[in-house]
Amino acid sequence: MDAPLAVGESGQVLPATADLEVSPLPDRPGIRASGEITAVTRSSWEGALAELARRHTDVSYVELSDVAYIDVSGATALAVTAMGLSAGRMVVESPPSSLPRVLELFWPNLNRIEVTPR
Questions:
Q1: Domain CATH code at residue 77
Q2: What residues make up the domain containing 19?
Q3: How many domains, in total, are found in the chain?
Q4: Can you tell me the distance from the alpha carbon of 51 to that of 59, in angstroms, rounded to the nearest whole number?
């Protein structure tokens, strides 16, 4: 991934750090990420989630089919963002297999996140 990207406030794609690319979904409210979500890419991930939360209405989608790995801090950022939503839910699509386990372990009753497996 030569030119990592992140979603900016106006929805445009901006340079980010390390091996994470995040862009808006073209057909519904949400973001698509690819690469790895780790301590190195955490600030880009958190920025994209903050922008997603600002634009959230009822349902926001987080498409992760091209994410190879998400660490606990990345899962925490996702959970904290979902808990901060005033209404509605996040639908996390095709996450790495570790994400549903981490969410269930640390946030077993978090019903603001719906996970659809790979």
A1: 3.30.750.24
A2: 5-116
A3: 1
A4: 14
